[in-house]
Amino acid sequence: DGGITQSPKYLFRKEGQNVTLSCEQNLNHDAMYWYRQDPGQGLRLIYYSQIVNDFQKGDIAEGYSVSREKKESFPLTVTSAQKNPTAFYLCASRGAILNTEAFFGQGTRLTVV
Amino acid sequence: GQNIDQPTEMTATEGAIVQINCTYQTSGFNGLFWYQQHAGEAPTFLSYNVLDGLEEKGRFSSFLSRSKGYSYLLLKELQMKDSASYLCAVSSRSGGYNKLIFGAGTRLAVHP
After folding, report:
1. Which residues of chain A are within 8 Å of residue B99 when distances are taken between CB atoms?
2. Which residues of chain B are within 8 Å of residue A101 when distances are taken between CB atoms?
């Protein structure tokens, strides 16, 4: 089945450690996005990519890094520079035709202790 | 920059109709989406508008006025399972890139 997969669903890390969240899609979508959601809040854009080997900063990119080496994959690294990393992280992908909706993965809940 | 505003919370009665408004400011607008999100889950797509007017999909309808930077989501025959957050998202193009920005969401509580 086609879809977008994030792993793991829950992740715990110690403060000061970098952590990488996985996002894979087999929908043949060009665009991929990473969002952060805090309790009771909306989605805030971290990074987005339209094609392989190219990505753009969103509204809250500080403390995060991404790569887009393959069309199917868009991993997000939460670095130790991110001051408040505990949050729900959502990855989405979207086709090249603009009137198509973005599809979301199930999300990764990151807790830093 | 971009700005999207929605009411924070709304309540409604089962079987009733509710309208959730969204206002936005952006350049390079190329579409507006509505998503539903239950607590702890990923958002799911409800509707899309790019031209002015009303789009109807079963119990859900969405309206867009580009000149006013305004959209609303209309939910009819409310059911308890409609209790969720409703997110307005604006797609825009800038510098050759397409961004998809979400509002803070409206939490809807449906009561018996």
Report:
1. 45, 48, 56, 58
2. 33, 45, 48
Q: Which residues have CB under 8 Å from A94's CB, separation 6+?
A: A29, A30, A31, A32, A33, A100, A101, A102, A103, B100
- Residue A39: asked if its preceding bond is cis (omega within 30°), the reply is no
Question: Mean pLDDT for each 10-residue chunk of chain A (113 residues)?
Answer: 88 93 95 94 94 94 97 96 94 84 94 92
Which amino acid appears at position A2 of this protein? G
Cβ–Cβ < 8 Å for A32, A48: yes
C-alpha torsion angle, residues A47, A33, B20, B38 (rounded to 10):
-110
| Pairing state between β A19-25 and A76-78 | antiparallel
Asked if residues B69 and B25 have their Cβ atoms less than 8 Å apart, the reply is yes
Q: Which of A43, A56, A90 to probe by mutation at the B interface, max B CB count within 10 Å?
A: A43
Going from the C-alpha of B51 to that of each of A16, A72, A110, B5, B77, the distances in angstroms are 47, 31, 38, 20, 26
Nearest Cα neighbor of B36 from B110, B109, B105, B111 is B105
CA dihedral A94, A95, A96, A101 (to 10 degrees): -60
Q: What is the pLDDT of residue A63?
A: 96
The pLDDT tens digits of the residues spanning B12-60 come to 999 999 999 999 999 999 999 999 999 989 999 999 999 999 999 999 9
